[in-house]
Amino acid sequence: MGGEIAIVGIGDADYSKASGRTTHEIAxxxxxxxxxDAGLTAADIDGLMYVPYSGDQFDAAAFHAHFGTxxxxxxxxxxxxxxxxxxxxxxxxLAIRSGQAxxxxxxxxxxxxxxxxxxxxxxxxVHAEDLYKQxxxxxxxWFPQPVYFANIARRHMHEFGTTSExxxxxxxxxxxxxxxxxxxxxxxxxxxxxxxxxSPMIADPFRKExxxxxxxxxxAYIMTSLERARDLRQPIIAVLGVGLGTSRTxxxxxxxxxxxxxxxxxxxxxxxxxxxxxxxxxxxxxxxxPFTIVSLMQIEDMGFCRKGEGxxxxxxxxxxxxxxxxxxxxxxxxxxxxxxxxxxxxxxxxRQLRRTAAAxxxxxxxxxxxxxxxxxxxxxxxxxx
Length: 385
Fold this sequence. Notes:
The protein is an alpha/beta fold. The chain is 37% helix and 17% strand.
């Protein structure tokens, strides 16, 4: 499948704190911008991908209602953000190969900052409604997500000697990139390592800077065959490889034996094999980053350093866009750009490879997005053909 399809249009909705917008309004704005970027119209779209879990995504009915279109659409609920922001191109390639669609739109949007005062939406609600967690985790204090991953971070520290300063290096790098990114929620809010270390603990060893934002926002991208991509206005950014890995313990991290690992140990090797490259060939990396420790573990599990050496690897300027080492989340990530569950990471990688990003990595030619949900991880490798 590697090299069959390309991402030809990208669009961001406005990223913000509580805005009063709906998810449909946010996704529509991102889609309009992706269409304009590609030089296409809504009438050209004959495939649509989104994730169904939240029940409020930009489905076929919402697409037609907004754009006034009526044509039949190939529809897949294997799109959206998180792991699906990386794996969607695989399913899209199959649909394009079989002639079921020609131009496929993938969208994801959230209005969790707007919904927050009503205590609905957001990642906590999904976990709070799980009966297993209600009965066997919450009574013992194992809730919500910052507690899960603070425990994982503490175990990583115990096993490998990881330090708070090393986790802070990730937070500082993401904030640096957000300062350069015009639409980042945390733009104009700089962070030094000293600032990070002065910040109070919220769930030992986490400070608030170790934790992602809660935002309104979303993004969209459009895929088509490599042949059609050559006729469009943007440089070709080809899908080189896709991988997907699954943990048998699902969202129950308390039951995971490999407590300090992610399913990237399964996803990344498959994607690298499909692309015919290795970690040393990667110019820019973006990973789903709900917490600093998840960034660190994915960097290890994808092969950029050995297991347990992530802390030493990320210190200093290693992750900075202009250091020539491993530029990471160059838009700021979910820690400092916006919490839209990974789809903005894919948009950023496309910008990097087009060489139009705000925090541009010089001569970037190969970029990776690492998706994550806990139960699964995914790896998407993009490149300039």
